[in-house]
Design goal:
CATH topology of the largest domain: Jelly Rolls
Radius of gyration: 22 Å
Shape: globular
Strand content: 25-35%
Structural class: alpha+beta
Number of domains: 3
Order of helices and strands: HHHEHHEEEEEEEEEEEEEHEHEEHEE
Number of helices: 8
Number of strands: 19
Length: 330
């Protein structure tokens, strides 16, 4: 296991409060090395959302957390592990623990007060990605916004959408319902796009199945590569076959892997980048991954993240491809 993989392992062991005292000591030693700052930033960005009901996946916020940690690092030489003073460990423990509070502070400064029944995500000037409390992901197209109960405390998970958004819904026994004017779209676990204009709405399904109800007793069931349009005046439903990926071209720069298998993620990367990506160990194919790439990351950057998440290593292959090796999640 390389240094980066070891740091990733130790970080999550500490985050889950399962690491031993010697592992904690090793983690703090690694955190003092500035060469690990980029990895630490990505680990913070992935982990702090687990304790926040919903968040904008904002790189600026993640960077603020990282810079906060960097500023607090004691400006002293790195000692051999056995000679590191106890107080430095104590300071490091407090520092890492403060990340959760800082994340909460930065999050709440961008959301409504807790007394409000709904969280209102303002219309972004550019596309932005949300991770909801149930693990679902919502990619808001510019000028779109949603209102919702951030805790999803009822028997259903419901949001109200204005504008256009891409949804990748985490499977749950509670239905996920999107309200757009008089129209409701209901799913259990799938990926789809809704484009709500002033007088009409279009729903496009990339995977899974959704039900679109016009509010007047009529409905349409959609599967992959099907689209339905609804006129708000007469509420007529018109379903057609489409190439879903082409229909929502605005999402093309972004990649959202929401609890998918490594095999599925690799297949999508093969199609997108038109290169060969080989998993040398068939046992890793069913390992799961959740990650968002919304800032134009290169293929190698994406492969690097997927490898670290699932305890694998990668090497460049001929033709711009990659080979992934390792035991994976087993």
């Amino acid at each position: 296991m390389g240094v980066s993989e070891r740091l990733t392992y130790l970080f999550y062991r500490y985050y889950e409060n399962t690491c031993t005292s010697s592992e904690k000591e090793e983690l703090f030693q690694l955190l003092q090395d500035p060469r690990h700052d980029e990895l630490l930033r990505s680990l913070i960005d992935e982990s702090w959302g687990k304790d926040i009901p919903s968040r904008l996946q904002d790189p600026e916020t993640a960077d603020k957390i990282l810079q906060y940690i960097i500023r607090q690092k004691p400006p002293v030489p790195i000692y051999p592990r056995r000679k590191l003073p106890f107080l430095k460990y104590a300071a490091a423990i407090i520092l890492l623990g403060s990340v959760s509070f800082l994340a909460w502070y930065l999050y709440t400064s961008h959301t409504t007060a807790p007394s409000q029944p709904l969280s209102k995500i303002p219309a972004p000037a550019a596309d932005q990605c949300l991770t909801l409390s149930d693990g679902s992901k919502v990619l808001l197209h510019k000028d779109a916004h949603i209102d919702f109960d951030p805790a999803f405390s009822g028997k259903t998970r419901e949001v109200t959408l204005t504008g256009e958004a891409y949804f990748d819904i985490r499977h749950d026994s509670r239905p996920f319902i999107v309200h757009t004017g008089p129209i409701t779209t209901t799913v259990l676990g799938t990926a789809f796009n809704i484009n709500a204009h002033e007088k009409a709405l279009t729903v496009t399904v990339l995977k899974g199945k959704v039900k679109v109800d016009n509010g007047s007793g009529a409905f349409s069931i959609l599967k992959r590569n099907e689209q339905v349009s609804v006129d708000f005046d007469n509420r007529q439903l018109k379903k057609i076959q489409v190439d879903a990926k082409e229909e929502i071209a605005w999402k093309k720069p972004y990649l959202l892997f929401n609890d998918v298998t490594i095999k599925e993620a690799v297949e999508e990367l093969r199609q997108r980048f038109r290169v060969t990506i080989v998993l040398t160990n068939p046992a890793v194919e069913n390992c799961h991954v959740t990650a968002s790439f919304t800032h134009g990351e290169s293929l190698e950057q994406i492969i690097k993240v997927l490898s670290k998440i699932n305890n694998m290593e990668y090497t460049p292959a001929a033709g711009g491809g990659f080979e992934l090796t390792g035991e994976g999640c087993n």
